[in-house]
Request: fold
Amino acid sequence: MENCIFCKIISSDIPSHKVFETDDFLASLDIHLQSSGHVQVIPKKHYRWVWDLPAAPSAAQAGVPGNNGEYFSIVHKIALAQRKAFSTDWILSKIVGDEVEHAHIWVYPDRNVKGDMNDFEGNAEKIRQNLQ
Ligand SMILES: [Zn+2]
Reply:
C-alpha cells in the first residue's frame, strides 16, 4: 500500500535489520526500541490489523498463505531465539497497530538484558544465530 512505512520496509525502499523472513512474513528490528533486540513481525501483504489475516487453515483449507497460524509460529520462533540470544526467559509480546496502520506484533526481551540496545546489527545477528 502506498505511503505505508511497513510496505516500504518489505519492498526494501526503507532499509531494515532483518532477523527472519518467509514468503509471507518479515521479522526485523523495530526502530523505536523497547529493549535490546526488539523485533516486530509483520505480514508482507498489507493488512490493517492482525485480526484481518486469514485464519490458520484447517485440514480442509491447507495451503492458505500468510495465515495467522504461520504468523504466530514465527513470533514463537523469534521469542525462543531471543531467550537464548539475550540469556533471559523474560520475552514480552504485544499486538499493536495504532501508530502504523499495518498489522504488526512486537516481540522483545526484558529491558534489563545485557548489551547495547542501539547495536542494531549486532543484536539482529545474535537473534539470527539462535533461530532454529
Ligand atoms: Zn502496509
Remarks:
- Helices lie at 5-10, 68-85, 120-129.
- Residues 5-129 form a domain with the HIT family, subunit A fold (CATH 3.30.428.10).
- The radius of gyration is 14 Å.
